Amino acid sequence: MNKRKPIYVTQPFLPPLAEYVGYLEHIWDSKVLTNGGPLHQQLEAALCNHLGVDHIALFTNGTIALVTALQSLRVTGEVITTPYSFVATAHSLLWNGIRPVFVDIDPMTLNMDPARIEAAITTQTTAIMPVHCYGQPCDVGAIQRIADNYNLKVIYDAAHAFGVAANGSSVLKHGDLSALSFHATKVFNTFEGGAIVCPDAKTKLRIDQLKNFGFVDETTVVAPGINGKMSEVNAAMGLLQLKYLDSAIQRRGEIDAAYRDALRSVRGIHCVERNGASTDNFAYFPVLVGPEYGSSRDALYDKLKARGIHARRYFHPLISDFPMYRGLPSAHRENLPVATRVAQQVLCLPIYPALLPEEQQSVIDAIRGQ
Ligand code: T4K
Question: In DSSP terms, which residues pair with 55 in a beta bridge?
Fold first, then answer.
């Protein structure tokens, strides 16, 4: 029987294996596997150049990067954040003993609504942690004005925002720090991986120490750091990915355009607008399934699944609905009406460079009711 292969929400972009083997041979010869080896250093330099940023510290994954970003700035007390994200955003706060304070999102961008921030500030607030959700830039100007007025740090969860620019400049340059994820499901992947974009060499040095257990030299430890170092095999994957990234993102852009074109006429299917960036990365393709569609989001999700199409409900449930957060006063659904509605309606459709036109068509046909 000719069984159709499943269509996932995403698939990692894999460069030619032979080129990766070349890097492996180099690693085998040098016997340097980790702890800031030559490939790690090359990737840091290449990423600064590619992203247009001054300093970057590589990590083992995006979650440890977030945890360390908060630790490096000595953030304590309460941090204002969004409930509409992957759970790692808020978990990074709990790992630092910080209380998350959730504010609602903007119905158009699905990012933290800056108009909600001031009312959530208390004497305990020390920072804001917004997310460039789906790679859509936050309102960085409004967030920075509030942070400056109240003397708050801003740490961006930029896990989705690799290569995204607003007004011609990288979104990673805003706030005090930005944390990236290079997980297999991301636009740019190193199998597992992540990074912190830092404004100056002094901050990078502190972050580099914190990701190496807090060592400042062979015998001195200045802080309870973690092991967050990226290995050489991960760095090699990153160097290879960079070579092919432009064409991969271009293909994502074509898929994005084809969905918008095909779904425009489908009643009740609202493609989330991409209008905040001057350079997009097309990391996700979220649609909102409204009441006029005729069946619920979950019914559509099930229908797609039955056809082997594994769309995902990112981000349902809201972080604020998970057991370790739902007791917080800010987690009440009355405080988060927009995020609550969007989490009930959202569906992220398959988007990745290797998605075939006929596979995308089968997703579109299923949504159109064919
Ligand atoms: N902040 C934000 C806003 C984030 O979105 C994330 C991660 C983080 C922080 C933390 O960064 P990391 O510590 O992860 O670097 C995935 C990812 O694991 C996670 O990285 C990502 N966000 C989140 C949005 O999605 P799952 O549990 O949905 O992934 P999974 O394994 O179900 O994969 C989705 C699909 O991708 C699969 O159906 C098939 C495909 N896939 C996946 C993997 C892992 C592959 O084809 N190959 C693979 O190796 O969480």
Answer: 198
